[in-house]
Amino acid sequence: MGVYEKRYERLRAYMKEADLDAVYITATENYRYFSGFNNPDGFMIVTADGADVFADFRYFEAAKAKCYPCCRVIEQKRGCTAEWFGTAGVSRVGFENMDLSVYGFDSLKKITDEVKAELFPVDATLTGIRAVKEREEVDLIIRAQRIAERALDHVLKIIKYDMTELEVAAELEYYMKKYGSVTPSFETIAVSGSASSLPHGVPRPVKLERGFLTMDFGATAEEYHSDMTRTVVIGKADDEMKRLYNTVLEAQNAAHAFIKAGVTGEEADKSARDIINAAGYEGCFGHSLGHGVGLEIHELPNLSPRIEGIKLVPGNVVTNEPGIYIEGKYGCRIEDMIYIGEDGPENLTEAPKELIEI
Question: Exposed, middle or buried, 224 (CB in 10 Å: 0-12/13-18/19+)?
């Protein structure tokens, strides 16, 4: 059974259980996942025995060439949605409630009301299906990660005191593209000194400050993302900086040893958070331990103290990214990606984590 056939098997099993005749897919990532083609403006409709992919003139030729063999590609024109529902004979339709705008929902409902079809939200189901990765998807995430690591190797060799944070971010993004990433996974973070206390700080056009430099970045491979963070020191680290860095690394290593199938996201987060709190940094780790990675940079499952009972399963890819942030002073984060395999967890990140002073 091919990759896409497994995906449709899982979706149609859910459709049967939920008594749905069709699922109306609008999210770019789910369109890519079920069609094999990346189209930011298309939609598709999956039924028990078909998958119709809609693409306008700009993407129509490419869609015909790249969509999975099970898909029928239809040119997206004015009135095509109403035409499809007018002849399909469906009565229960799933839609992506977290993706569809109010305007989009109202437009869809007007069409389905005309054919007396009911709408049911299915967003969590589709993202849940995507959370279990096939090995082919994991290999793409690894490819993206190796691109990011090559870019980091380059940057560590050329960082100078008179560089700006923006220049560091630009070097990372340029070399990720040079090595094969069509786009970065997200807006690259490169913040130094006092700005390193901002977990999602924005690179500034200022020279690198002495102290911690946190770089959070990722590459893409065929729309699959990678995500990593490394923190280095501009200048020399004092004893307290070394203690903080080593506490973050200890917390990450503890989580690495703990994370596996059957563990909840809440438990995984606690395995790292307890170490940070015990070291005297309680309240300085304000975000979750990690999140899923795939066609989106943030997707299910979440390793969070605020989400209870969701267990990791084989096929998940999650980040492990504890951090300590002292407001107005500095901060540090270390992030790897972990694949939950049938034979145990696999760290997908190869970049070194010893404290580097530049």
Answer: buried
**In the chain, what are the domains?**
3-131 (3.40.350.10), 135-347 (3.90.230.10)
> How many residues are recorded in the chain?
358
Separation CA 338–CA 319 (nearest Å) = 6
In terms of Cβ atoms closer than 10 Å to its own Cβ (0-12, 13-18, 19+), residue 344 is exposed
Contacts of 153 (CB under 8 A, 6+ apart): none
pLDDT tens digits along 204-250: 999 999 999 999 999 999 999 999 999 999 999 999 999 999 999 99
| Dist CA 51 CA 287 (whole Å) | 39
CA distance 295 to 185: 10
Query: How far apart are alpha carbons 161 and 56 in whole angstroms?
Result: 49
pTM beyond cutoff 0.90: yes
Rg (CA), the chain: 23
Q: What is the DSSP letter of 201?
A: P
From residue 73, how far is each of 30, 45, 59, 228, 293 by CA, in Å? 16, 11, 10, 37, 28
